[in-house]
Structure formats: structure tokens, C-alpha cells
Amino acid sequence: MIESPYLKNIRKKTDSKIVMLVVDGLGGLPDPKTGKTELETASLPNLDRMAQLSEAGVTTPVAPGITPGSGPGHLALFGYDPLEFLVGRGACETLGIDVQMGPDAIAARANFCTLDSDGNITSRRADRIGSEESIPLVNKLDTVQLSSDVAVEVHHVESYRFVLVLRGEGLGSSVKDTDPQDEGVSPLLAKPEDPTDVAATRTAELVNTFAEKAAA
User: Fold this and answer.
1) Is 158 left (phi over 0), alpha (psi -120 to 50) or beta?
2) Phi, psi values for residue 62, rounded to 5°
3) Phi, psi (5° rounding) for residue 106?
4) pLDDT tens across 8-55, in order?
5) Which end of the chain is more exposed for a tag (fewer CB within 10 A), N or C?
6) Which is nearest to 156 in space by CA: 135, 130, 136?
């Protein structure tokens, strides 16, 4: 956590309770039609009252200019340095559904998406299908096999979200995202962050093979 010699001198145990409300996605720019941001537009009587009864302040959990992912971003809120404690979204999602990882496991958070006849994405979240539609798809994907020395697990998380877990020796987590963050284009191929990273290269190849079989 945050390393500071001063924390030991001011820390003391109390019976106080702390409620942390994380309101994600409110860093948007003003709406062109109204000139107001989301917070300026919203009616927030309860939050306004809580602010009047509280000590308010501003914190910068991550260094300026750095955009953290969900894993590092949430850890930073609890005092962990996101540049030191690198936890991906796959690991967070997997632990969140009580699936244990282990030293030889790699997890990737995934969305179902919709493709057109040309293989281009028409919906990055498959029109946000519900769990009743996605669970049968997850069960089908859970039967995919890649190699004799790598076990494949696919776990449903919620609605269109699921987690792919690979278990085996010689796997690496430094693999680039396959989501192009746009529609009208095809999904990206998984690639290692460093082409010389043998473990990550092998993992990227396994992910690409999984994607091919999933689309078959």
C-alpha cells in the first residue's frame, strides 16, 4: 500500500465505519446542447446532503497523464500504487466470481460481441444480451480444447461478460487487447506486448485459436 513513514504515527484503530461510493464514468465533457457535464446536469439531493455533512476533498490516486484500467484504478482507491501492483481485469473478474487463479493461470475478461457477414463488429457488447442468453453460450465455449498441456475454462460473469482462464506452464500475461474499441471493424488479433516474450507469444496464439474455435 502507500509507503509513508508518517502513516504509522497518525494511524489508530477506531470503531468508525467508512462507506466508499465509487461513481464511475463521470469524467465526461460538457454536453454540446446544454454546456453542462453529467454531474452538473444530474439532480443529486442525497449526495449533496452527504457532502454537507462530510469532510470533502480531492485525491489523485494515479499520476497525472496516466489512465488506469479497472484493476489498477480500483486498487489505487485503496492506496495501492497502480504502477507497482499491476492487476488485470481478468484476474479481478475471476476472483469476483470466486474462481481461484494460482501461479500457472492466466485470466482474460471478455465480452460477447456481434459480427456481420464480413466479420466486422456491429455491437461490441452483443446488444447487451442477458444472462439467460449468454450462459448457454458460455457452456458451449467451455468445451473448447486448445492443447493437451493447457486447460481451458470459461466462466460466466454477468449478462454479456465472461472470463477465459488458461491453466498451464509457460503462459504469459503481457498480451494486447483484442477489442478495437470501435464498431464497423474486425476484432484484433491477440499479440504479445513484447515480440521476444516467448510466454506471452504462446498465450496470444492460444487466445487466437480460442477465438477461431469460438466463432466456428
Assistant:
1) beta
2) -125, 150
3) -125, 130
4) 777 778 888 887 777 777 777 899 999 999 888 999 999 899 889 888
5) C
6) 135
